[in-house]
Design goal:
27 helices, mainly alpha, 66% helix, six-stranded parallel sheet, globular, 6 strands
Length: 644
Amino acid sequence: MHLTRASAFQRKLLISYELFLNLTNDFEFAGWGSISHLTLVPEDIHQGDVEMTSFREQQVLGQFTASALAANDILGGVFYTLPSVVALAGVYSPISLFVAALTLFLWRPVMEEMASALPISGAPYTYLLNVSTKSVALFGAALLLLDFSATAVVSAATATSYLAGEVSLPFPVYVGAVLVFVLFTVVSLSGLRESARVATGVLAMHAVVMIMLIVASVIAWGRGGMAQFRSNWSLGHVGLSPAAIARQVFNGVCIGMLGLTGFECAPSYTSKMKKNRYPKVLRNLHLSALVLTSGVMLLVMALLPLDVVESGNNILSLLAQKVAGRWLRIMVVVDAVVVLCAGVLTGILSACELLVKLSCDLILPRVFLATVPATGAPYVAIISFIAFSALVYASTGANLTVISQMFAMVWLAVMALFPVSLLLLRFSRPRLPRASQCSLFVVAGAISVTVTVTAGNVAIDPTIAGWFALYLIILLVLFYMSQNKVTMLRWVYWAYDQLPWLHRQQFTKGWGDSLIRHMRSLRRQEVCLLVKSDEIDNLFNMILYVRRNEETSHLKIVHFHSGDIPSEMEANARSKYIVLHFFLDEAFPEITVDLMFVEGQFDPKNLAALAHHLKIPRSLMFMSSPGQNFRYSVAELGTRIISI
């Protein structure tokens, strides 16, 4: 039944919102709401069963296959991290890399607590989306997209550089990097996806090559003794004071963080892991980074002259040549190209997943969901990301050093989002159940390390902060414009309203109606609030969240019941709804609010069935934070947490 009011009040309402003097204001009022009852039909229930079965079938990754997805990035980072660290830390590079890897002991408990509270994919963007506002989450999304872009660019450029160090290429390195981008654009558009099996295969090849290199190096070190290491150590000390040595080690730590990139990828597919595997995945990634980067760097310093190490980019291929000959050097180069190219594909596919998620959350236009009919690949997302990455690479003059240093800053910023998300979680969602809880000293330590190392990177090269800020601001502006499309159109409508002479011109007189149609089209997607009680203050706060974060003109408030609607909600539904509507009409008349009672238990299956019935994706269904006794996880529900 539809609710009405006195026509006098309607006129008063519309007059109070008369923002446009020469054009109509009618489009600001979305209409009256309604109260309805719904019983889910068998077709909806079946669809709910299908979606829940699909969700459970996606949780197939064990600790080793899940580790492989991110380990290719972490262990592949050894190819582009070592030259950068050696250039700053010299003979102290093994110490710097070891200290850098130790810092992950601060992040592991933080990331474990966040994942136990919000076991959802797409982190840290999805973490911020559930513990703060959409604008804050967009800041995290911008950092993530910049991180994925830097991953793809650095991997492509380093792969070409490694190849150029072994064979004479008929074109510059930057042309080779562009060709790698073109190749993997085609691969991505063909519909190929990075699977755990492929990632495990690439990781297995990389592990075999690295083990062969390490074993051969240890044998060569045992035969040659400590002479080369002592020589390098003596040369590295020449003319350096203790303060200068400490500075070199610190600079090496700042750039050495680059060798840990990929650790932030594990939370992005948490929901696809089997139960209780996530902490083991983080442990595997951490220990492998701790051993490989610093261990290999130690072998390099023990077997190669310092001047050779400092002058060469293909450090590992030089080490392979030294300890085993040409055959192992070729294997290392092939391994480097394959692993780094896998990093390019990882960057593209991770970015596409993020762009699709942003489109589903109504931040980016729906065109980003467009796919190639034959393959299902999101071609708009792929091409947009490749174009942005190419712009980043070209704007730095194809300078791999600049991009690598910026990469380290981006990675630090992304890692800072995890402790920040945890602080927001404890403050704004304290009731959300979680299996583990780390000390606030650990959280503060992770933030302190981030700030300190970021400051160190800026001190090494202040221009890096400029590049980082430039790209971040560009992305934030684009995201803001996309999220606030209706707001910007209203400004255009206002400007058109202020120029009455345009209303009389043949060419421009229809612009007002066209703008109204476009604004209504953008706001037609419904969103849903899932409520347990009829407390008006709680409902009002939740609707305020929708008003501030979603561009919609239609909101459904849904209450699940088992045939026994709470007495006050049933008896006073009409009166309380009218009171609530009075506030809504005065505050934001552009939203139509419906109240719906759904018969059934509040569980993931019925929620998926409701989403199918209403044609509202669960990503646009919002609820308050569940308590300790709630049976289901946020990942199963697929909803967004928007209040305490």
